[in-house]
Amino acid sequence: MTLGLINANPVVREKKERTSRPDHPHDALDPLDIYDILSFQFSFLDIRDPEHPYSLEQLSVLSEDSITVDDKLARILITFTPTIQHCSMATVIGLCLRIKLKDCFPSHFKVDIKVTPGSHADEEAVNKLLNDKERIVAAMENPSLRQLVDECLNSSEL
Prior knowledge:
Blueprint: H1 31-39, E1 67-70, E2 75-80, H2 90-101, E3 110-115, H3 123-130, H4 133-140, H5 143-153
Parallel strand pairs: 2-3
Antiparallel strand pairs: 1-2
Helix pairs in contact: 2-3, 2-5
């Protein structure tokens, strides 16, 4: 966790219990499929917030409603809502989402990750960074940033 928290008292909600969907056809993706991947599949634990020992779901940063899937166009849009307008960790949260989803879908799928419109003071800059492949690669080459993303993805504190 980072010292000098920007949002020292976030609103925290209970984690949802997950169940498998054995009768769900897997020939088409839906938002719940993507949410399941972000939440508990592929042996990852929940994505932890970079500043708090809570998951993005617990902080209402990410929800099932924030995922849109267009199977015909092979596009996935994930929007997330930082806990405050000036969240300095918004890009880290977006990078965590991108890294977690990186190998989960066929390469023909286009994944866009954006902050919810109006939820961040630097919305345009954050969205630009999170959807620019060169910037993402450069960010993940930074050892400190890579370590922070890895800690959020692999946290056992949740």
